Amino acid sequence: MTTTAPTLTDAQYHELAHLALASVEAQIDQWLDRDVIDIDTHRTGGLLELSFPNGSKIILNTQPPLHEIWLAARGGGFHYRCDVAAGRWVDTRDGSELFQSLSHHASAQAGVALLFTGA
């Protein structure tokens, strides 16, 4: 499934992408505070690296020229574009939602059920 061309301005994209990554970081901080799981995060600009206790990683990386967020996990690589009308980031191939996919891959890599809900 191919989504339509981005309809966001660069400023809107940067704001929404920042909010998405900040939401992931906030969720991980909550899990750490509640002793659910200790996922280390490292953020450099638009790149957020999640390091799991077993040594595996998930990378979320903003792609400003394309107005996308890319997710790299053991299960593969995925590209998401913001569907402004629906208020969610959707996969450019199959239409799946970013936080749903991130939850799936993080749960698989962590060995425990993890749910990211987004901003």
TrEMBL record:
Entry keyword Oxidoreductase: no
Any Pfam family: Frataxin_Cyay
Record flagged with keyword Methyltransferase: no
InterPro entries per record: CyaY, Frataxin/CyaY, Frataxin/CyaY_sf, Frataxin_CS
SMART domains in UniProt: Frataxin_Cyay (SM01219)
Organism domain of life: Bacteria
Keywords: Iron, Metal-binding
Main function: Involved in iron-sulfur (Fe-S) cluster assembly. May act as a regulator of Fe-S biogenesis.
The family this protein is said to belong to: Belongs to the frataxin family.
The protein, known as: Iron-sulfur cluster assembly protein CyaY
Species assigned in the record: Ideonella azotifigens
Gene: cyaY
